[in-house]
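Escalation from tier 1.

The customer reports that the assembly of two entities below gives different structure tokens on two consecutive runs. Tier 1 could not reproduce it. I'm attaching the input and our single run for tier 2 to review.
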Amino acid sequence: MFPKQNDRLQVMSHAVVGFPTLDENEKAIAGLVASGVNLIELQVPFSDPVADGHTLVNACYHALKNGGSVRATLDLCAKVSKQHPDASFILMSYLNPLYRYGLERLFRDAAAAGFKGMIIPDMPVEQFEPHMPLLDELGLAPILMVTPNTPDERVARIAQSARGMVYVVSRMGVTGKQTHWDDDFRAYVARIRRYTDLPLAIGFGIRSADDLKALTGTAEVAAFCSKYIEWQRDDGSEVAAQKMKTLLTEAELV
Amino acid sequence: MIRSENGYFGEFGGRYVPEILLPALTELENMFNELRDDPTFWQEYVSLCQEFSGRPTPLTPLRRLSQELGGAQIWLKREDLNHSGAHKVNNALGQGLLVKRMGKKRIIAETGAGQHGLATAIVAARMGLQATIYMGADDIERQYSNVFWMRQLGAEVVGVETGARTLKEALDEALRDWAATVETTHYVLGTACGPAPFPELVTYFQSVISQEMREQALKQIGRLPDEVVACVGGGSNALGAFSAFFDDKDVALVGVEAGGISFEKGEHSIRMLPDTAEPGIAQGYKTLFLQDEDGQLGDTHSIAAGLDYVGVSPILAHLSQTGRVIPESATDKEVTDAFSLLMKTEGIIPALESSHALAGGFKRAKSMRPDQHLVINLSGRGDKDIFNIARAFPQPEWPEFLKREAARCQKQVDAAKESN
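Tier 1 run:
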């Protein structure tokens, strides 16, 4: 399940469904779990992923050629959530594939497949609000994003519908580039804490053990995604899992 | 003028963007809402268009062509005579005024055919702003002359290598840039698409076209036209040509989309006709998108890079469903025929984008009476299309010339290298 506030930092990692192949996804996820990762996003590949940098854009492009889809993501989750009962799987998708599938049907099928939460970067809180009773009934957490430029009153509104954890986008821009964990960043995290008791997941720009060390004590979750996909792309899923294990050891998180 | 309800036109429109872009869109919307009803702002905009871009553009009767076709009297609204050669500069100038008020020093834009990129580069040069233009790598190949000019004007042109490497990917990449730079950069979106308030904002600036057209028709024809025809890519020139006539129910408004090679998937860019696009939410807004069952945006084709887009303005999606706008399409072949006909009969070189409106308009005019009047919005001029036209009308002397010219250019580049 999701961590609680003030739990020790844990890493959330990533799979793009269909990258490098659907079969490989299952092995890669087993490798991540064996390395000590218990929060894993399964990303539905999309033709136009506007919040992602080039690593994930290219992974999406390949995944689509290899059969990645909403259906394949639900099927994969049904399998891996049974294989790894201690891990929590989070559906990550842009809105259109889910909208085409039918949002309400998707929410029900995602919960049935074992998903615990959802990250949909282009679905603003206003669009989630009408669905909250159903999502609460299903126990499917909308993990909503806040960004450094989100005004206070909007953070408050987002916090009202957020469940599971709040995804704190660490900086301006898209995924896949370095972030500096300076005083401004810590003040920003403190500002978000004023509006929610949920654990905070920091995302965008976490690429090394040093980044994880810098976040230990500041947040409960660190999203280590683009860099992991780069390992997977360059070295294959097995080596990527080993590197993940080394990373967690170096960051003193296992 | 059409007004949205909280950014929506019927079921279409809205604002579906990553959280990071919301503050800038809200700021832009607030500014737009304050300025849109301020007549002095409109006057400032119209004066700028006049002194810099030669507005008002004329309404030209096509006497010889109308007689030859034997139907309605055909008129052209000459947006091709704008500075930069297309209607795109209207919107770029208008948004330039907003940038000045915001105090931002950098602008970015997506571009398909390069006309909007060129217009943005021109405005940036005139206002002393830094400009970055995103353009699909394939479109760069198709429209190199515009790329050449954008760079000469001092803009940075970034080729986008992802996906199908056309307008859709350029828009994605511009949104990514904006997510990183939104506090210092304004995104000059080039068409009436994208998240609110862009569809309404772009339509507002482009409506100068139909406001002039209306006045000119009353003066030159003595009444309003029976039909107004425009090509539809994203929809900015069509909405510009239509918007002053929305309440004139007797004026038919016809939008011509790119029929491409055939009606097969991936071979056209038709979004508003049945069995083509479906409602979807992407690139920040809800509209009719060409897509597959999984909601992946589809591939498109058109002879005209400026019409080769997967979505369409939410305003047009809505108006095509209510029946106020009549959707039509023209194939690549019909387009090149209409292109030749206008050039040879009236001495005007149209853009291939605008030639879709010609093809659709000529077809409709033929079935109308000689006492009826049809206005076609000639959104841009065609000299930028010289390479594409040369391909559409193959003749041996053109590649021969290019070889000689390439050799001459290479010699100069080599000489410059040596002297360094």
